[in-house]
Amino acid sequence: MSYVTLPLPAVPAPHRVRLFTPDDMDGVIALYSHPEVARSLNFTVPVLRETLQTKLTGDLEAMRQGKGIRWVLSREEDPTPLGYLTLFNWSQKDRRAEVGYMVARALWGQGVMTGVLPALIRFGFEHLNLHRIEGMVNARNSASSKALLRAGFQQEGVLRGYQADGNGGGFNDMLLLALLEDAWRASVAK
To answer: What is the DSSP letter of 11?
Structure first.
């Protein structure tokens, strides 16, 4: 299955998504470069442009290899990137993937991901034939874990000391959350 032939997730207005392409590199780098956004994603601050170019080039390669899909979030009338969304670490055999997302600092606290996550989840279950969607969130990022919980995910555990802090603050605990297809189907049938 090629991501090129799949429909785009239908996100609520005033936003839209498009597939991430090399033309989006500068705009997405600008989003990641905000110090608070970078810290929330465990990048060393200040983030080096080369670090982000390497990451995003790897994301494009993963898309080419069919290991995930990346989208750019923008407003309907303006193509400027406002967020970066992904279903990645896709295992077709196990029918699971991990959801990832980031929105511009200016949009934090406005419920953008609460509106967008259901479209990504629907896409994963209906178009990628997933059985399980996982989210791994830094335990200090309560807004992100709350967005996943509101979308129906359940916290399955805490991975203590799982990730070295990108800014020298020791190690981060990560929350593992997941949503299974049958639970999602039951919730949308209500």
So the answer is: P
Residue where the block lists tokens 């593992």: 176
Best CA proximity match to 115, nearest among 82, 155, 93: 82
Q: For 12-141, where are the alpha helices, taking DSSP H only?
A: 25-33, 35-40, 49-64, 112-127
Region of residue 119 (left: phi > 0; alpha: psi -120 to 50; beta: else): alpha
| Count of alpha carbons within 13 angstroms of residue 157, beta-carbon side | 5
Please give the Cα distance from 87 to 114 (Å, whole number): 16
pLDDT digits (tens, 9 = 90+) for 96-132: 999 999 999 999 999 999 999 999 999 999 999 999 9
- What's the one-letter identity of residue 173? D
pTM of the model: 0.92
